């Protein structure tokens, strides 16, 4: 029988509580027909548009459906999924926007891990990127930045827990709020970048 693993907290056992937690995860990630249609449209149009904008507009490039639809690398499919994944962190921890806004006013950022620093420095470059594309109108610079931000976030999330859950009940027992704020800042920048590029994010993929 295969084992199922929670990436930060070890394996799910076959006991009732973990089975319930797994069912909850499956319910969360199975799309409704309406969500599936929205996701299909967003990904389909986004992939074509992003494939064009991610190249320097003054240079030729090879048009490839296989490449633009790839969910790995600097593609819309990868970035849309990355944003969906980031947004799901707060949702699964039952943290709403009001809580995050309040935390932003009261929580001290303690960046004591190298991946936190790396992500924080990447986030701070966003105004510089916007200023650059306002001057030269080359949107591939923004695409490259969003891809760098997404991959930097992945490194951060793989190394730094944001939400800790009880292994038996699946209930949230600890939330690292300053890391949640890094998640929120990353998601907000990606959403603004998508808006500039004309991409429509989806809530679930």
TrEMBL record:
It comes from the Eukaryota. InterPro entries: Arg-tRNA-ligase, ArgRS_core, DALR_anticod-bd, Rossmann-like_a/b/a_fold, tRNAsynth_Ia_anticodon-bd. SUPFAM superfamilies: Anticodon-binding domain of a subclass of class I aminoacyl-tRNA synthetases, Nucleotidylyl transferase. SMART domains: DALR_1. Pfam families: DALR_1 (PF05746), tRNA-synt_1d (PF00750). Residues 79-205 form the DALR anticodon binding domain. One of its GO terms (molecular function) is arginine-tRNA ligase activity. Keywords: Aminoacyl-tRNA synthetase, ATP-binding, Ligase, Nucleotide-binding, Protein biosynthesis. It catalyses: tRNA(Arg) + L-arginine + ATP = L-arginyl-tRNA(Arg) + AMP + diphosphate. It is an enzyme of class 6 (ligase). GO terms for biological process: arginyl-tRNA aminoacylation. Its EC number is 6.1.1.19. Belongs to the class-I aminoacyl-tRNA synthetase family. This is arginine--tRNA ligase.
């Amino acid at each position: 029988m295969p084992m199922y693993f929670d990436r930060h907290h070890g394996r799910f056992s076959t006991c009732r509580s973990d089975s319930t937690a797994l069912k909850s995860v499956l319910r969360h990630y199975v799309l409704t027909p309406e969500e599936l249609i929205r996701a299909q449209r967003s990904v389909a149009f986004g992939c074509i548009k992003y494939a064009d904008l991610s190249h320097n507009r003054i240079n030729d490039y090879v048009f490839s459906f296989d490449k633009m639809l790839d969910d790995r690398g600097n593609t819309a499919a990868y970035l849309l999924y990355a944003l969906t994944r980031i947004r799901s962190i707060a949702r699964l921890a039952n943290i709403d926007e009001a809580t995050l806004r309040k935390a932003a006013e009261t929580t001290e950022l303690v960046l004591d891990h190298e991946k936190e620093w790396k992500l924080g420095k990447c986030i701070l470059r966003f105004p510089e990127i916007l200023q650059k594309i306002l001057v030269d109108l080359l949107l591939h610079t923004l695409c490259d930045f969003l891809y760098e931000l997404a991959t930097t976030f992945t490194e951060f999330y793989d190394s730094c827990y944001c939400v800790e859950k009880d292994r038996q009940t699946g209930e949230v027992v600890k939330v690292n709020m300053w890391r949640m704020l890094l998640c929120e800042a990353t998601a907000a920048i990606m959403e603004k970048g998508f808006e500039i590029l004309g991409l429509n994010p989806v809530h679930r993929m």
